Amino acid sequence: MTAERIDGKAFAALLRERVGALATQFEHKAGRKAGLAVVLVGEDPASQVYVRSKHKATVAAGMESFEHRLPADTSEADLLALVEQLNADEAVDGILVQLPLPGHLDDQAVIAAISPDKDVDGFHVTNAGRLAVGQSGFVPCTPLGCMMLLTDRLGDLSGLEAVVIGRSNIVGKPMAQLLLDANATVTIAHSRTKDLPGVVKRADIVVAAVGRAEMVKAEWLKDGATVIDVGINRLPPAEGEEKGRLVGDVDYAGAEGVASAITPVPGGVGPMTIAVLLRNTLVAAYRNAGLAVPEIL
Ligand SMILES: Nc1nc(=O)c2c([nH]1)NC[C@@H]1CN(c3ccc(C(=O)N[C@@H](CCC(=O)O)C(=O)O)cc3)C=[N+]21
């Protein structure tokens, strides 16, 4: 079998288009644009690239983008003061503080300061709790994007065996909860799991989110599995290359021969993360403006 390539980039483009159309409707109804504030502390080059592409995508979708770039030695008090200012700003519907923060700043304390109703990353404990008990809030962008790809491809997930590899608060845990809500039978595997290949072999759906280049091998997969690769790892440069290639957590070339469908890296889950961020921001805007959130969002 040659697996179908799940084109996250194309799916994300469609989602951004739909969000853009609804953002225009929002502007007519609310008399203002939806707004996303992105805060970047320090000069990490990879973070700068992400923040720039978020800004471009936000503006392209007809929303307002507020960028705040702070020096690497910003104090926690100054960062918290900025978050408070954004919480109070009626033009700001969503707030994203780019993680990881420089070492002297406490990620959790900063996330806790963001108003849960503007926490479009879905990282605040209030939103994690809402997801855990089935209340509506904000769901982290990467796992929500993975669910969109899965349900688009498989429809009803009821009774399917899903194995999530990785237990982070940002991907693994919320991913498992979304799969459970969709009636899949869910296993969360991690670095201490015994016989990981044997566990993965049961899975109709594999979500790999461990951050180890090409760790998941073709031989681990059940025939016809659907594979969602969340990893983005840069390999060391080969001879004559300036930068190493980007690869996922799954050995794509091998998995292609066993899986029925698989997301590539790049062009799979990554673009979905940004598209869902815009989606969450528009949802926040409707809610903050006291307007009904359109069903198709
Ligand atoms: N508060 C916060 N929220 C985040 O959502 C957040 C964050 N901090 N810190 C960093 C990570 C990483 N992240 C990505 C988003 C898009 C791509 C993406 O679009 N990747 C493309 C291109 C990859 C490339 O060429 O570098 C792809 O996979 O095809 C990747 C990674 C969001 N993050």
TrEMBL record:
Alphabetically ordered keywords of this record: Amino-acid biosynthesis, Histidine biosynthesis, Hydrolase, Methionine biosynthesis, Multifunctional enzyme, NADP, One-carbon metabolism, Oxidoreductase, Purine biosynthesis
Binding site for NADP(+): G166, R167, S168, I232
Residue stretches making up the Tetrahydrofolate dehydrogenase/cyclohydrolase NAD(P)-binding domain: 140-287
Pfam families: THF_DHG_CYH, THF_DHG_CYH_C
Highest taxon of the lineage: Bacteria
Keyword Amino-acid biosynthesis: yes
Reaction catalyzed: (6R)-5,10-methenyltetrahydrofolate + H2O = (6R)-10-formyltetrahydrofolate + H(+); (6R)-5,10-methylene-5,6,7,8-tetrahydrofolate + NADP(+) = (6R)-5,10-methenyltetrahydrofolate + NADPH
SUPFAM superfamilies the UniProt entry points to: Aminoacid dehydrogenase-like, N-terminal domain (SSF53223), NAD(P)-binding Rossmann-fold domains (SSF51735)
EC number: 1.5.1.5, 3.5.4.9
Transmembrane segments: none
InterPro entries: Aminoacid_DH-like_N_sf, NAD(P)-bd_dom_sf, THF_DH/CycHdrlase, THF_DH/CycHdrlase_cat_dom, THF_DH/CycHdrlase_CS, THF_DH/CycHdrlase_NAD-bd_dom
Domain Tetrahydrofolate dehydrogenase/cyclohydrolase catalytic: 6-121
Pathway: One-carbon metabolism; tetrahydrofolate interconversion
UniProt function note: Catalyzes the oxidation of 5,10-methylenetetrahydrofolate to 5,10-methenyltetrahydrofolate and then the hydrolysis of 5,10-methenyltetrahydrofolate to 10-formyltetrahydrofolate.
Family per similarity comment: Belongs to the tetrahydrofolate dehydrogenase/cyclohydrolase family.
Record NCBIfam families: PRK10792.1, PRK14186.1, PRK14188.1
Quaternary data: Homodimer.
Protein name in UniProt: Bifunctional protein FolD
Biological source species: Qipengyuania polymorpha
Gene designation: folD
